[in-house]
Amino acid sequence: MLARLNRDALWGLVLLLLAAWAGWMISNQSAGHALRGAPGATFFPGILAGALAVLAVILLIQGLVSQQPRVLQDVNWRSIARVVAVMALTIAYVQAMDRLPGLLRALGGFPVRGTAFSLTTPPFLAGLLVLLGERRWWLVGLLALVTTGALYVAFVELLNVRFP
Amino acid sequence: MFELVVSQTLTPGVVGATLAGVLLGLAIGSMPGLNVTMAMALLIPVSVGLPTGPGVALLVAVFVAGLTGGAYSAILLNIPGTPSAAATLVDGHPMAKQGDGGRALGLAVISSAIGGLLSLVVLILVAPQLARVARQFGSPELFALVLLGVMIIAGFGTKSVIKGLIATIIGLLVMTVGLDPLTSEPRFTFGVVELQRGVSLIPAMIGLFAIPQVLTTVSLQIGWGGSGIATKLTRIFPSLADIRHVLPAVVRSGGIGTALGIIPGTNGAVAAFMSYEATRRLAKDKSRFGHGDPRGIASAEAGNNGLTGGAMVPLLTLGIPGDNITAVLLGALLLHGLAPGPLLFTENPEFVALIFGVLLLANLLTLAVSLVGIRGFVQILRVPAHVLMPIILVLSVIGAFAVQGSFFDVWVMIGFGVLGYLLVRHGFPVVPVLIGIVLGPALEGHLRRSLVIADGDVSVFVARPIALTLLIVAAAVVFGPGLWRLARQIFGLGPPSSPLTPPVSGDDDSDSPPDTTDPATPPSGPSTPRDGHLPGGTDPEDSAHHSEPIPRRKDTP
C-alpha cells in the first residue's frame, strides 16, 4: 500500500502522523502555572503541531495529484547500500568508543584518557577507506594512523578535550 | 571606533585565528564536495573551545575565504567549489583552457577582495543606523521581525514553500524539547535527563550539515578518484591594464552583492549570477562573455564576496541570518554568549568592532595568502573525496562529543544527520530546520511576552503598525510567489526571459552547487558536470540513478 504512494505523499502521511503524535503528547501534558493572560507551556508546541498537520495534509494532497514516481520506483539500491554501510560502520564506531573503557576496566585494565579513541579510530578510518574504494593498503594504514594522531593532538593537547 | 577595531583585532589570538580560518576556508572552499557551511559547523566545537575573539574570528575568516576558494576549482576544473563560484566558471574555465588559468585566478582573488572590502564599508555605514531604528521595537514588533526572518528562510530559495515551512516547523518543534523557559514544565523530554536542557545546538548543526554532505557524496560518488588540473599556472598577478579593464565591473558587482546580502534569504550564487548578468548587459562588446572574458570572472567574484558584509547587516542588527552560512554563525555567536540584535551595538560595541576588524583582516589575508600560495592550494584539488569523507565523519563524531564530553550528543548528531540526509534527499531544505532551532526561543519568547503585555489579546500584533507591516511582509514572502504564479497563469503571462537565471538552490549557498547544465544558463558557457550536485534544495535523487561512479571532471570543448 505505502509503496504505491510517491515520495511527497508518503512524507505527507508520515508528517501527519508526527503532528498527531505531537498533538496527543501536548494534550496529555500540564500547561504549568503561567501568569495571568500568559499562554502556558503547551501553547506554542500546540500551534506548531496544528500548523504541521495542515502543511502535511497539503503535501499529501500535492503528492497524490502529482505525477512523481512511486517510492520504490527507480531506486538505486547500490547507492542506498553504500549509505547504509557507512552509517552502520559509524554507529559501530561510536558504540565501540563508548563501551571500550568499561570493557577494559571489566578485564582489569586501567584505560587512560584517549585510549578508546586511539584504539577505535584507526580501524574505523581504515574500514571506511576500504569500503569507499581505496585499495592502496599503505595509504589506508598511513591515513588512518596520521589522521588519528593529528586529531588527538589537536583536540586533546591543544583544545584540552577529554576523549574517552 | 577605529581604536576599538584595532585593539580588538590586532591581538595575537585574533590574528592567528583569522589566518588559520583563511587557510582552512581557502582549502575547503576549493574542494568540490566540501562546503563552507559544513566546515563552519565542524569548526564550531573548536571555536567554542577558544576565547570569544579568536573563536569568532576563526569562523568569520572561514566564511570570507571559503567563498574565494570556490573559484579555484571553478576555474581549473570547471566545477564550482562552492555554489557561489558557479558563475565564475562561465568565463574562468575557458581562460584556463586557453592557458591563462593563473591570470584568471589572480583576477578572481583580487576581485573577491575588492568586493568583500566594499561590502565591509557598507556594513560599517548601514548597520549602526539600522540597529538604532530596531532598538525602538517592543515584543510584538520583535516577534513579527523574527517571524519574518524565519519565513524568509523558509520561503525563499526553495522549490517548495510547503517543504520549507515544514522544515521550519520541524526545527521549531525540536527547539521546544526541554524545560519550558517560563513555567519549567518539561516538554517532549520522555523522562530523559539529558533532554531537559533541550537539544544541543552544536551536535544538531554538525548533524544537519556535515552528515548529509558525507552521505550524499558517498551515495553519488562525487569527486571520487581525484582529478587532474586543467592547466599549469604561469602568470598569476594580473597586469594594471587588466585591473583597469575590470575595475568598473568589480565596483558595480561588489555593490550588487552587498545590496543582495542585506536581504535575508539571498545567497552567494544569486549575487554572483546577478552581478555577472549586469556586467554582461552593460558591456559594449559582449562577444567574449562565456569564452573567457576577465570581466565575467571579476563581476562574479566581486558579487559573491560582496555578500559577506551585506549578510552581516541583518545578522548583527536584527539577529536574523541572511543565509545558511550566517545561520550557522548565529548559532556559534549564541554559544559564545553573544546575542546579535538591535542592542548589540550599544551593549557590546567591542564585539561589533571585532567583527568589522576581522572582516577587514580576513579579506586582506585572503588576498595575500591566495596570491602567494595559489600554486600550493590548487594541489588540494587533487585530493579525492573518498579520502576526505571518512575524516569528516570522525571529525563530526568527536566534534559532537567534545561539546560536553557526552556520547548522548554524538547520538543526537547522528540522529540529525539521518534526518538531514532524508530531508535533503527528498527535496526539503535543511537550513530552515536550523533556523527554527536557533530563532525558536526568541520567537516563542516574544510571542508569549507580547500576550502577557496585552493580557492575552492577540490583536496586539495588528494594532501596532510596525508589527502589522512586518507580519504582512512575512505573509507575502510565504504566499507571494504562489499568488504571483497563479496570477501569471490566470492572465496568461509567459516566464520572464533572462539568459542567465540564478538557480534555485534550496538551502543555499554552500549546500547545493547550482546546476549550470540548466538550460537557463548561457548557451556559450561550459557546463558543470552532474557531480556538481550536492545536498540542498536540488534533488540528489535525480542524480542518484547513476550506477557507475561519476567522473569528476568533464572537459567540455
How can the largest sheet of chain A be summarized? Answer: none
The string of secondary-structure elements of chain B, in order, is HHHHHHHEEHHHHHHHHHHHHH
Q: What structural class do helix, strand and pairing data of chain A support?
A: mainly alpha
Mind telling me the C-alpha Rg of chain B? 22 Å
Low confidence ranges of chain A: none
| Straight-line distance between termini of chain A | 46 Å
Q: Give a quick account of the main beta sheet of chain B: strands, pairing sense, barrel closure.
A: 2 strands, antiparallel
- Helix percentage of chain A: 55-70%
Range of strand content of chain A? under 5%
Greatest contact between two chains:
A-B, 67 and 61 residues
**What share of residues of chain B is helical?**
55-70%
Q: Strand order across the biggest sheet of chain B?
A: 1-2
- Roughly what fraction of the amino acids of chain B lie in strands? under 5%
Quaternary structure type: heterodimer
Order of helices and strands of chain A: HHHHH
Structural class by sheet pairing and helices of chain B? mainly alpha
N/C terminus separation of chain B: 53 Å
Uncertain residue segments of chain B: 496-557
The number of distinct β-strands of chain B equals: 2
Q: Which outline of chain A best applies?
A: flat
Q: Secondary structure elements and their pairing?
A:
The complex is a heterodimer of chains A (164) and B (557).
Chain A: H1 7-27, H2 43-65, H3 77-106, H4 115-131, H5 137-158
Chain B: H1 2-9, H2 12-30, H3 36-49, H4 52-77, H5 88-134, H6 139-155, H7 161-175, E1 178-179, E2 186-187, H8 201-220, H9 240-262, H10 268-282, H11 294-318, H12 324-335, H13 344-347, H14 349-379, H15 385-404, H16 407-425, H17 431-453, H18 460-463, H19 465-491, H20 540-543
Antiparallel strand pairs in B: 1-2
